Amino acid sequence: MSAVQRHAVVAGAGIGGLTAAVALHRKGWRVTVCERAPGPAAVGAGIVLAPNALRAFDAIGFDFARAAGRALPAAMGLRRPDGRWLSRADTAGLAARYGGPPLAVHRSALVDALTAALPAGTVRYGVEVTSVDDADGVPVVRTRAGDLDGSADLVVAADGIHSPLRRQYFPDHPGLHHSGETAWRTVLPAAASPVGAATAETWGRGRRFGVVPLADGRTYVYATAVAPEGYRPADVRAELLRHYGTWHDPIPAVLERIDPADVLQHDLYDLAAPLPRFHHGRLAWLGDAAHAMTPNLGQGGCQAVEDAVVLAHLLDGAGPTGVPAALAAYSTARCARTDAIRVRARRAGRIAAVTHPLAVALRDLAVRATPARVAHRALDDVFDGFTLPAAMGAAPTGVGTR
């Protein structure tokens, strides 16, 4: 730890921003997290933490996921709307291959645990970061209420998919690309869930429906459909029934138990092009602010966790004057990996969202013909690809399986 404690300001209290705050705090930094929302979100959705994200959490000693998460059931896979299985995966095989199975958690539970790992008062709700002036090498953080008190040695832009800080520093970037799909997400209470232990995603013509049991007995439910940007049905339940009401059990029963007031709808976007770098001076971008991707590989939150852990690792021991060099190393470590996954997620979404009957039939045939071991092997670079790069002047550090 430096003789003078360094100060980091994190814009955004999502999973990536809070993971960065925890990782930096454990490296001896004083951290201030600014979150524009007035308080912790009571609603939300589930998230599946893949082995690479769990390995990153291990690297900073954060073990909430194993304590409160739930391993995906022994059988999971893809189905057709009539219920026929296209593929089934053995999570025991995934655990053996990657050192542990994926874990399903509620986002709010993960956010709460990350927040609890920080000193009281670290997260300031109702404080929206609008811009950062880094012209003189000492970042000045501006909020809607005025400049943030105190100087910052580092600013972490974890301000989401519509990142104002990304727009400020990359004004010529083309911004977001609409995937052509919209998504609905909700979480069913344990008493209302008819799903049991089943985990599955069902693919139809331009539509998908998924159910994931969570640790506390609740069920994460999500659905996607090809739809124009900005489309919002007046009656959410009727819209979901129209799309999925005739699909296999337990989907109709799930739809009957959904509370429309708890359903989140978002159009699906990714970045139209990669950012040229993830840093500027003493400012670093991570998560959706740096590399927004569609959820088709389940890697958006997982890559944000990786970003945060790598960032803190490279800053450790860099010293006050070494922050810009550490951030440049962070860009080098993260840009290529995250963009490859962004592109791969986009391609996967296009395959899943095909609408022509012949294309759907060919897609389904290809999925059924692919052996599980081949499908697993195709994910090796994603699930087993997290490593800690060499710190400033140090030898590379590998992060093995858990």
Low-confidence stretches: none
Q: Helix amount, in percent?
A: 25-40%
What best-fitting shape do the alpha-carbon axes yield?
globular
Q: Determine the mean pLDDT.
A: 90
The strands making up the biggest β-sheet line up spatially as 6-5-14-15-16-13-17
Oligomer: single chain
Find the CATH superfamily of the largest domain: FAD/NAD(P)-binding domain
Number of strands: 19
| Domains (count) | 2
CATH architecture of the largest domain: 3-Layer(bba) Sandwich
Would you kindly provide a brief summary of this structure?
The protein is α/β, with parallel strands linked by helices and 402 residues long.
Describe the structure in your own words.
The protein has 402 residues and is an alpha/beta fold. The chain folds into two domains: 7-74 and 103-176 and 272-351, FAD/NAD(P)-binding domain, CATH 3.50.50.60; 179-269, D-Amino Acid Oxidase, Chain A, domain 2 (2-Layer Sandwich). Helix content is 35%, strand content 24%. It is built from 14 helices and 19 strands. The protein has helices spanning 15-26, 51-59, 64-68, 91-98, 107-116, 164-169, 236-244, 251-257, 288-291, 300-315, 323-352, 357-369, 372-378, 380-383, and strands at residues 7-11, 30-35, 46-49, 70-71, 75-79, 85-90, 103-106, 123-125, 129-133, 140-143, 146-147, 154-157, 176-188, 199-203, 207-213, 219-226, 264-271, 279-280, 283-285. The strands form four sheets. Strands 6-5-14-15-16-13-17 form a seven-stranded mixed sheet, with helices on both faces. It starts with 6 loop residues before the first strand and ends in a 19-residue tail after the last helix.
